[in-house]
Amino acid sequence: MGGIGSGARRSTHIGNVEQMLALDIRILRRLGVVRTGECTCDTVQWSIGGLSASSVRLRIDLSDIERGGVMTISGDMPDDAIKQRVAIEMVPSPFGGQRCYFICPVTARRCEVIYYAGGRFGSREAQRLSYAVQGMNELSRARRKAAKLLSRLCGSGGQPRPRGRNRIDTVSRLREAEYEAKTIYLDRLRTLADRSGSRWMPGDSR
């Protein structure tokens, strides 16, 4: 017979991706750090609350497209110095050109984002990370969706601000997300008011 809690499911996740320092090959390519057929060097900095948290030097060699490439990461991370190599695979895109992927040093699988945890960079699965939304309730997810759309409009996180039709669509989606969050919030208030026997709630006219 097992001990107390022996039959309970245990989470193997050690944190959320939103809390980790990350390298996104799509953003690096958009910034011109990843260039097909070239070898480039650049510095990546992370900040928390507007203050510099850490920085690393990247050397990305994609001069031989047929054999793929390699990214060398060196610098000082929050807990220790790092010197790590991550392979990059070039895959032909159906619309022309090449698409780049990191090869996770732990799982050897393709990924577009690698996260720093335990003194190394690796894929989300290798680092045993989860998404914050997995532990959120309906209201928190709705508010998070609205916050992400607002951040996209402001061009945060290295993303360019949407323009033209894309901006109009993003504004429309933001309004829908804000309305959804407000509706869920008011429904919750009404439920709480019904349970307490109250006939009035904030926002109602007397």
What does this structure look like?
The chain is an alpha+beta fold. The protein folds into two domains: 116 residues, no CATH class; 61 residues. It contains three helices and eleven strands. The strands form three sheets. Strands 3-4-5-6-7-8 form a six-stranded antiparallel beta sheet, with no helix packed on it. The chain has a three-stranded antiparallel beta sheet with strand order 2-9-10. Helix 2 packs antiparallel against helix 3. The N terminus is likely disordered.
The averaged pLDDT comes out at: 80
Q: Got a strand count?
A: 11
Would you list the SSEs in sequence order as H and E? EEHEEEEEEEEEHH
Spatial sequence of strands, sheet with the most strands: 3-4-5-6-7-8
Number of helices: 3
Basic shape: globular
Which stretches are low in confidence, meaning pLDDT under 50 for 5 or more residues running?
1-11
Name the beta content range. 25-35%
Distance between the termini: 61 Å
Structural class: alpha+beta
Characterize the quaternary organization of these chains: single chain
Instruction: State the domain count.
Output: 2
Main beta sheet, described? 6 strands, antiparallel
Radius of gyration: 22 Å
User: Considering DSSP H and I runs of 4 or more, what fraction of the residues is helical?
Assistant: 25-40%
